[in-house]
Structure formats: structure tokens, C-alpha cells
């Protein structure tokens, strides 16, 4: 007999209003995108919400009498009363149509609302720059110099976008921690066990391929600090995949060659690529890793540990709690 679990939800807004039902919830969590987003669709006949321990009727009232754009929102979900946090952020839009849709963004929303910056940085490091424009946040990054940069009347978010347009850095929040780095150099956070015959749903686009099948051509680029000069190195096999690899600053030709060849080894491997679908548990987030085992091959040649760069979570009546875990390279 297949066990049956009841799905429970808790959506807390402005740290005091609680919704325990939703028509749909969609959450996108990624190391590649600058913001995580969520969309919550409330039921058409929604009439009640909780404030602390009491119930409030909102029949014949507008939801905007209680919540507003900019309010904090926390989405929790789980089975049989065992809830876990799926998303924390802020409401960025409240739809005018029925059913009502709430669009939300993570902590990056606050960097859009901060005071504008008018400042010139002289030979500043990436970490020092982030500490200056995002005070109060923990910063996790690597050591690299940005050189001299100047900003005039821009928000911290706009400053990040400007740096992102010039350098190959990825920026994203995990809670109150701001991460910055090169997408292929982020360390995986937590490892989760997946058995393709047990806790992986049917569907997804997970495919197995050998390293011979993975023909990749890479153009590696290292910008030279303080100028528009760049050093390039091209390597690999012409095929279906051609990628531009933005590397750390100020690498010489030999360092760039080594960096590019080490990177391409991550892309050319015997193993799975694409994405697979799972249930609520394990609760994966982008930056974690998936230890995939395939019991149909007892010699274990298809088993491996993969980096998860994106998790898309959908919660609704037909799918229950479903996660799409996209993987980018094999860790081992």
C-alpha cells in the first residue's frame, strides 16, 4: 500500500497574518539568478485569515486592507503538520484579479529599496565592495580585486547589476547571507540521497551520457584589472555545446589554460545531466548536491554525486509538493 500524507501549508505575512490554504505555490531557487522568486495564488473563495491566535473574516473586505507590497512573507510546507521553510522574502506585487496572486522576491528586494550610492572606490576588493553597499549582511565570497570603480545615484541592487555586467560574478542570497562568486566554483552545501527507483518521480529530463558523448568547446576569458584587455584560451571539441567561460581576473595564459582544462573536466564525464523531479523530502536547495544511485545497474557505473544549481518547487492539488532539481556537473 502506498502511504498517504496530508499536505500542510503556513503562509505568514507581515509576521502576523497567517494563511493555511493556497490554490498554487510556485518557487524558483537558483545559484544562476540574482533573485529567488515565489508566486502564491489564493483560493477564489478565500474568506478567512489568522491574526495571532484569532480568526479574522475578510468577507466583503479587501485583502489590501490587511497586507501590502513590501510586507515580509514566509512560506512553510510539509506533510502531516511537519513544516519546513520553502521561501522567505517580500511581497512585490498583489494582483487585482480573482483569484488573487502574490508575487514575491527574496532579500535582494531590500537592496532595491536602499538609499542610492554616490561613491568612488579606489582599488577595492569584491568583499569590501559588498560590505560597503550591503551593510548588515553576512558576505561569503572569494578574494579578488575590482580595481577603481565609481557609482552615481544608483541603488545597491543597481550597483550589483553593473558589476555583474563587467565581471563574471554571480550574486544571490541564502537567507540573510549574500553570496558572490563564479558559478562553477560554489561549494555544495548539503548532500541528499536519491534512488531512481524509490524517491525520484517519473518525469523530468534526466539523461545518462558518456564523456565521449559530451563534446564541449570552451572559450575561456580572463579580464585584466584596470583595463579593457582580456586574455583568451579556447579548448575542447566542437559539438553541441559551446560555452564562454568567464574566469578569475588577471590570469596569465598558462594559468588560464589550466583553469579552462580543469573546468572542462567537470563538463565531460560519464553520468547524468538535466533534471529530475522529487517530492517534498529531501528538501533540496540550489547549491546542494544529489547523490544519485540507479539500482538497475548493480555495477554502480551510473551512480554519482551532482551539483544542484536550480530547484523549482510547485505545490498544488494535482502534484502535491513537487521539486524539479536541475544539475550542472558531476562532483564525483
Plain-language structure description:
With 332 residues, this protein is mostly beta strands. It folds into 4 domains: 7-106, Thrombin, subunit H; 113-183, 3-Layer(bab) Sandwich (Phage tail protein beta-alpha-beta fold); 187-214 and 269-332, Elongation Factor Tu (Ef-tu), domain 3, CATH 2.40.30; 215-267. It has helices at residues 108-113, 126-133, 156-166, 253-267; strands at residues 7-13, 17-19, 24-30, 37-41, 48-51, 54-57, 72-79, 82-94, 101-105, 117-125, 138-140, 145-154, 170-174, 177-181, 191-195, 207-209, 216-223, 230-236, 241-246, 271-278, 289-293, 304-316, 320-330. The strands form 4 sheets. It has a 15-stranded mixed β-sheet that branches. It has a 3-stranded mixed β-sheet with strand order 11-14-13, with helices on one face. A hairpin with a 2-residue loop joins strand 5 (48-51) and strand 6. The mean pLDDT is 88.
Number of helices: 4
Percent strand: over 45%
**Distance from first to last alpha carbon:** 36 Å
Q: What profile does the largest beta sheet have?
A: 15 strands, mixed
- How many domains would you count in the coordinates? 4
Question: How many E strands?
Answer: 23
Task: State the helical fraction.
Answer: 10-25%
- Counting helices, strands and paired strands, the structural category is mainly beta
Mean pLDDT: 88
Based on CA atoms alone, the radius of gyration comes out at 23 Å
The CATH architecture of the largest domain would be Beta Barrel
CATH topology heading of the largest domain = Thrombin, subunit H
The CATH C-level class name of the largest domain: Mainly Beta
The low-confidence runs, each spanning 5 or more residues with pLDDT under 50, are: none
Order of helices and strands: EEEEEEEEEHEHEEHEEEEEEEHEEEE
**Shape assignment:** flat
Amino acid at each position: 500500500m502506498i502511504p498517504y500524507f496530508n499536505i500542510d501549508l503556513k503562509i505568514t505575512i507581515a509576521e502576523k497574518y497567517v494563511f493555511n490554504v493556497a490554490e498554487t505555490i510556485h518557487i524558483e531557487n537558483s545559484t544562476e539568478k540574482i533573485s529567488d522568486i515565489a508566486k502564491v495564488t489564493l483560493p477564489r473563495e478565500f474568506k478567512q485569515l489568522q491574526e495571532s491566535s484569532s480568526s479574522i473574516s475578510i468577507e466583503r473586505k479587501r485583502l489590501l486592507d490587511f497586507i501590502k507590497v513590501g510586507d515580509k512573507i514566509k512560506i512553510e510546507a510539509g506533510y502531516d503538520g511537519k513544516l519546513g521553510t520553502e521561501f522567505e522574502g517580500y511581497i512585490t506585487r498583489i494582483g487585482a484579479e480573482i483569484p488573487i496572486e502574490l508575487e514575491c522576491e527574496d532579500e535582494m528586494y531590500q537592496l532595491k529599496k536602499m538609499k542610492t550610492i554616490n561613491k568612488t572606490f579606489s582599488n577595492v576588493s569584491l568583499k569590501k565592495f559588498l560590505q560597503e553597499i550591503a551593510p548588515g549582511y553576512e558576505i561569503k565570497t572569494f578574494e579578488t580585486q575590482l580595481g577603481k570603480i565609481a557609482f552615481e545615484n544608483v541603488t545597491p541592487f543597481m550597483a550589483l547589476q553593473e558589476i555583474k555586467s563587467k565581471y563574471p560574478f554571480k550574486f544571490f542570497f541564502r537567507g540573510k547571507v549574500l553570496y558572490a562568486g563564479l558559478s562553477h566554483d560554489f561549494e555544495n552545501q548539503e548532500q541528499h540521497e536519491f534512488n531512481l527507483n524509490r524517491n525520484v518521480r517519473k518525469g523530468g529530463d534526466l539523461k545518462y551520457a558518456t564523456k565521449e558523448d559530451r563534446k564541449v568547446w570552451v572559450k575561456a576569458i580572463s579580464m585584466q584589472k584596470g583595463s579593457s584587455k582580456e586574455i583568451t584560451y579556447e579548448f575542447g571539441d566542437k559539438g553541441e555545446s559551446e560555452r564562454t567561460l568567464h574566469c578569475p581576473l588577471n590570469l596569465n595564459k598558462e594559468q588560464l589554460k589550466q583553469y579552462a582544462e580543469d573546468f572542462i573536466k567537470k563538463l565531460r564525464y560519464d553520468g547524468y545531466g538535466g533534471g529530475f523531479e522529487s517530492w517534498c523530502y529531501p528538501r533540496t536547495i540550489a547549491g546542494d548536491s544529489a547523490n544519485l544511485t540507479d539500482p538497475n545497474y548493480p555495477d554502480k557505473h551510473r551512480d554519482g554525486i551532482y551539483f544542484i544549481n536550480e530547484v523549482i518547487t510547485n505545490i498544488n492539488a494535482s502534484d502535491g509538493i513537487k521539486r524539479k532539481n536541475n544539475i550542472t556537473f558531476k562532483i564525483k
